[in-house]
């Protein structure tokens, strides 16, 4: 099994092994971004977004041995539950829901189309749980266009699909900056949120970019 293989193996738990390498990458990334994300959240929220995701990352790292025994769908669902349980802020239940809904949608041997469909299900779950939509200046401003781009390109070349997903995430992030927050704590600062980067949109962009890098580099 090559490093990229978030896909093909006949042992359900073996598939999960490659995904755990991606989990490590994401946890390390988010721990390193703690100060940046806290800073963004201080400007239009309460300054804890980086700390919240750092706590989630530490809890996922602790869960790693348990995740390694599960099928892909079970592991992603279990990871989502851990994120919900470890984070008090809004982003915990929302990122947790993203993962739990993705996990529910994943077959044991997911291919690119399955990942795209699972990502779409996860994004729907975030919108339902947050009663929010793209354009509200939240993580959804990045996740929704990224998911759409991946779904549109999932049957094409993997590199192209990942590049399209990343470009859509970056566009969504840039567009979001000029919007006024309608959900979450940033909604309380109203007009003053315009021109600021949303912390959740930033963390979502970091994660989407890291996923694109990981899968792109480990292709084949
Ligand atoms: P809290 O707002 O409870 O302090 P965090 O600071 O960890 O939680 O997360 C804030 C981020 O969560 C925001 O920047 C935004 O992207 C996201 N968020 C908050 N509320 C919602 C919502 N209703 N729908 C979607 N995303 C939301
Ligand atoms: Mg906060």
Could you describe the 3D structure shown?
The mean pLDDT is about 95. The chain is mostly helical and about 220 residues long. The protein has a single domain, classed as DhaL domain (Serine Threonine Protein Phosphatase 5, Tetratricopeptide repeat), CATH 1.25.40. Bound molecules: adenosine-5'-diphosphate and magnesium ion. Adenosine-5'-diphosphate binds next to helix 3, helix 5, helix 6 and helix 10. Magnesium ion binds next to loops.
What structural category arises from helix and sheet content? mainly alpha
* Ligand kinds: adenosine-5'-diphosphate, magnesium ion
**Fold-level CATH name:** Serine Threonine Protein Phosphatase 5, Tetratricopeptide repeat
Helix content: over 70%
Give a summary of the structure in a few sentences.
This protein is mainly alpha-helical and 220 residues long.
Key phrases:
single chain, 220 residues, mainly alpha, Serine Threonine Protein Phosphatase 5, Tetratricopeptide repeat, globular, binds adenosine-5'-diphosphate, binds magnesium ion
List the helices and strands and how they pair.
Elements: H1 12-32, H2 34-44, H3 49-67, H4 72-86, H5 91-105, H6 112-130, H7 140-153, H8 158-177, H9 186-189, H10 199-217
Bound molecules: adenosine-5'-diphosphate and magnesium ion.
């Amino acid at each position: 099994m090559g490093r990229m293989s978030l896909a093909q193996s006949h042992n359900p738990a073996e598939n999960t092994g490659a995904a755990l390498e991606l989990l490590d990458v994401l946890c390390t990334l988010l721990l390193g971004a703690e100060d940046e994300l806290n800073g963004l959240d201080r400007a239009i929220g309460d300054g804890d977004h980086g700390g919240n995701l750092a706590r989630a990352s530490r809890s996922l790292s602790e869960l790693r041995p348990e995740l390694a025994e599960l099928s892909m769908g079970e592991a992603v669902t279990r990871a989502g539950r851990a994120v919900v349980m470890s984070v008090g802020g809004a982003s915990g239940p929302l990122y947790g829901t993203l993962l739990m809904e993705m996990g529910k949608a994943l077959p044991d041997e997911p291919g690119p189309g399955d990942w795209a469909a699972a990502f779409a299900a996860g994004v729907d779950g975030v919108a339902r749980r947050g009663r929010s939509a793209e354009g509200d200046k939240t993580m959804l401003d990045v996740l929704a266009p990224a998911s759409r781009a991946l779904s549109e390109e999932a049957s094409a070349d993997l590199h192209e699909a990942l590049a399209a997903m990343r470009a859509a995430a970056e566009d969504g992030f840039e567009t979001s900056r000029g919007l006024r927050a309608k959900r979450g704590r940033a909604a309380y600062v109203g007009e003053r949120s315009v021109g600021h980067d949303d912390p959740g949109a930033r963390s979502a962009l970091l994660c989407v970019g890291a996923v694109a890098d990981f899968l792109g580099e480990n292709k084949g």
